[in-house]
Amino acid sequence: MKSVLFSRFFILLPWILIVIIMLDVDTRRPAPPLTPRPYFSPYPAGRGGARLPLRRGGPDSGPRRGAQKRNESRPRPDPQLPTIYAITPTYSRPVQKAELTRLANTFRQVAQLHWILVEDAAARSELVSRFLARAGLPSTHLHVPTPRRYKRPGLPRATEQRNAGLAWLRQKHQHQRAQPGVLFFADDDNTYSLELFQEMRTTRKVSVWPVGLVGGRRYERPLVENGRVVGWYTGWRADRPFAIDMAGFAVSLQVILSNPKAVFKRRGSQPGMQESDFLKQITTVEELEPKANNCTKVLVWHTRTEKVNLANEPKYHLDTVKIEV
Ligand code: UGA
Ligand code: MN
């Protein structure tokens, strides 16, 4: 009897081992490849769960004491603060990763910020996906291609991408009471001071402020009298109802949700008119809230990166390694 049991056990043993190995392999299966679905960051909207940027242990990470000090000065999650949603359209070009790096370095220092990065592309790119996964920021990764007929000089840019960001925001908040939030359109090449985010955080409906290095002038700004916007200091088409650059205003989430049809329009829209056409749908000049000391301080600059010189770039790959730039 004993020997029968013993031999059965040896017959079954290899099968048991095979089942164990199969289960083990299955749980170690690599992550599925990228799909064109939007990517929602695993980080919670607060900054508490945000993964630290990859600087620990690096050659320049400094002594432990220094690192600790830096962490203390990092913004803490504060659910009391309205979330700032920054919608950034971006497209593939040699300087893209450099632009996004500068932007992430700024955003990482802002508490309670959610980055909505919208690629002008038919699918989410590997470069941007990898970048966002390591950016240490609560983020959402969307994509929508600009139709080819609109990719011409003289036509407005990033219309479809900003609308995709708006649609995501509206969908995310459709079933819940609007949490306090502020939306801001952050182009990937501008320069943003940290003070700008403190200013826009208190937006009740639509707030405005000056923008540096824009419109062929050192700056443009809303003209303010007795705390109200009464006109525009601008070098270009001052007759626009809202003569302001995309970087010069923020909108409360409540206003975005209560005007579900407000979008950027292709039809009839010229470059430089997009902002005005959008703001016309959601507010009036009288309602605007001037920020930055009654619009007398420049806290954002419409910088533009020069086209990079790749004259010596070989036609075919010559290096022994492939490097992402
Ligand atoms: C000005 C305004 O500041 C922009 O807000 C406005 O969208 C743009 O004009 C326009 O002509 O529509 P400018 O510096 O001339 O800005 O424009 P870019 O910085 O080249 O583009 C604005 C944003 O759209 C950037 O975040 C850029 O990455 C993105 N973009 C640009 C795309 O997603 N796809 C493109 O083909 C070009
Ligand atoms: Mn720009």
Structure description:
Helix content is 29%, strand content 18%. The model is unreliable at 23-72 (pLDDT under 50). The chain has an eight-stranded mixed β-sheet with strand order 1-4-3-2-5-11-7-12, with helices on both faces. The protein has a three-stranded antiparallel β-sheet with strand order 8-9-10, with no helix packed on it. Strands 6-13 form a two-stranded antiparallel sheet. The protein has helices spanning 2-27, 64-73, 96-107, 126-133, 159-172, 194-200, 253-258, 274-280, 292-295, and strands spanning 39-40, 83-90, 113-119, 139-143, 181-185, 191-192, 206-208, 211-214, 217-225, 228-233, 249-252, 289-290, 300-301. Strand 3 (113-119), helix 4 (126-133) and strand 4 form a beta-alpha-beta unit. The structure holds uridine-5'-diphosphate-glucuronic acid and manganese (II) ion. The site of uridine-5'-diphosphate-glucuronic acid (UGA) has 20 residues, from strand 2.
Main attributes of the structure:
325 residues, alpha/beta, eight-stranded mixed sheet, three-stranded antiparallel sheet, 9 helices, 18% strand, globular, binds uridine-5'-diphosphate-glucuronic acid, binds manganese (II) ion
Gist of the model:
With 325 residues, the protein is α/β, with parallel strands linked by helices.
Q: Which structural class fits the helix and strand makeup?
A: alpha/beta
Query: What overall geometry do the principal axes of the alpha carbons give?
Result: globular
Beta content comes to: 15-25%
Bound molecules: uridine-5'-diphosphate-glucuronic acid, manganese (II) ion
Radius of gyration computed on alpha carbons: 25 Å
DSSP helix fraction: 25-40%
Tell me the series of helices and strands, N- to C-terminal.
HEHEHEHEHEEHEEEEEHHEHE
What spatial order of strands do you see in the largest sheet?
1-4-3-2-5-11-7-12
| DSSP summary: helix tally | 9
